[in-house]
Design brief:
The protein is of the alpha/beta class and 253 residues long. It has eleven helices and seven strands. The structure holds cobalamin. The site of cobalamin (B12) has 39 residues, from α6, α7, α8, β6 and β7.
Length: 253
């Protein structure tokens, strides 16, 4: 059984020496300490490589029986400007744990749709809508975490010039990061050529454009052709009511 030093083992595993050293300390990588340093058998390297290649088991998920009731409570907190109450609710769900895609689609989106309808009907003021949207932005930012494990790849998420609605793009980024994508989140109003150039420079596997109105969805379709042509990468476009779950399933493959 051939043994190699830790530096070589790190190279074989494709990680930095310090990372391999950390794995030895945590017991993940079996090693023998010799006067010249740690030595690792090729079998131990192969075992750890195989374990790292294996897909992660899907995380256990809790279920919410009554999303409608949760949405009603969330709505009341948002329109009252009760950020602490809204944050407690979102954090409780995230800790349960509930999939972040469900939290976006079954809690945030319906409440924002309702706030939009009430703003359009004149029963909520612009100030109240802005306050609620700003709270959502901060809560989504807090939920934005990437689980451990090798990223699936790189992607870019943005809205194009003319589209100020940033929350759907933020939700797409949060959902993709939770699925181990390395996301470059460009937020809103990005010129199409700049978006394509950045996607190319970062080696993005795909580009996501979020849009909220029929005009900006149509503009995104035109822009997508430009981006596909210049990056040779798929472009996914989200419109009002489009499913984040479908986006995640499509890109995870
Ligand atoms: C908050 C808000 C704003 C805020 C945005 C702040 C922010 N930080 O985002 C501000 C004040 C800037 C704003 C401005 C305007 N707004 Co506005 N706004 C809203 C509101 C209330 C919420 C938007 C939102 O976040 N929706 C929730 C998202 C999460 O839902 P969704 O669109 O269904 O998105 C889902 C999918 O897109 C999916 N998804 C996201 N990315 C991707 C990607 C892919 C590939 C896929 C598959 C899926 C996917 O995820 C989401 C969750 O499920 C909506 C109400 C509504 N019905 O949405 C109005 C609304 C969109 N706004 C509206 C209007 C009219 C405007 C203004 C024109 C008002 C004005 N006169 O100035 C401007 C336009 C500004 C511009 N140039 O873009 C109208 C649009 C009507 C229409 N159909 O054209 C709406 C519907 C309100 C209404 N009921 O009339 N707005």
């Amino acid at each position: 059984m051939e043994a190699v030093d830790l530096r070589t083992a790190a190279e074989l595993l494709g990680v930095h020496y310090q990372t391999a050293y950390g794995w030895v300390r945590s017991g993940e990588l079996e090693a023998v300490k010799r006067p010249s340093g740690y030595h690792v058998t090729e079998e131990a390297v192969e075992r750890l490589s195989a374990a790292r290649r294996a897909p992660l088991p899907p995380p256990k998920q809790a279920h919410v029986r009554d999303w409608e009731r949760q949405s009603e409570r969330f709505y009341l907190r948002l329109v009252a400007g009760d950020e602490t109450g809204a944050r407690r609710m979102a954090e409780r769900l995230a800790k349960a744990p509930i999939d972040v895609v469900d939290i976006c689609e079954k809690l945030f989106a319906p409440v924002l749709h309702r706030i939009g309808a009430e703003w359009a009907a004149g029963t909520l003021s612009i100030a109240e809508e802005h306050r609620a949207s700003a709270i959502c932005e901060r809560l989504l930012a807090r939920m934005d975490t990437r689980p451990a494990g090798r990223p699936r790849g790189v992607c870019v998420v943005a809205t194009l010039q003319g589209e100020e609605h940033g929350l759907p793009a933020l939700m797409a980024s949060v959902a993709l990061r939770a699925n181990r994508w390395h996301v470059h989140h460009l937020s809103t109003q990005v010129p199409v050529n700049d978006l394509a150039a950045l996607a190319r420079a970062e080696g993005a596997a795909f580009v996501v454009i979020s849009a909220t109105r029929s005009e900006t969805v149509a503009a995104a379709e035109v822009a997508a052709a430009v981006i596909r042509w210049s990056t040779n990468r798929p472009v996914h476009i989200g419109g009002p009511g489009a499913s984040l779950r479908q986006l995640v399933d499509a890109v995870n493959g």
